[in-house]
Amino acid sequence: MKNFLKGTAIMVIILVVLIAVNMACNLNGIDLDAPATGTVSAVSAMLIYEGLTKKRKSN
Fold it and tell me: Predicted confidence band at 24 (pLDDT cuts at 50, 70, 90)?
């Protein structure tokens, strides 16, 4: 359950940042490509999630 909450929090943060970037670009007349933006946000969310949930090995 803890990992689910971490994943949900990461996705919410990524989506809020993505909305802010899209709004800023739209105000300046730049139209972002939705599939490319969605792919980048999904991959970055997966990498952040893996980094937070990776179990550290004790040597």
Answer: very high
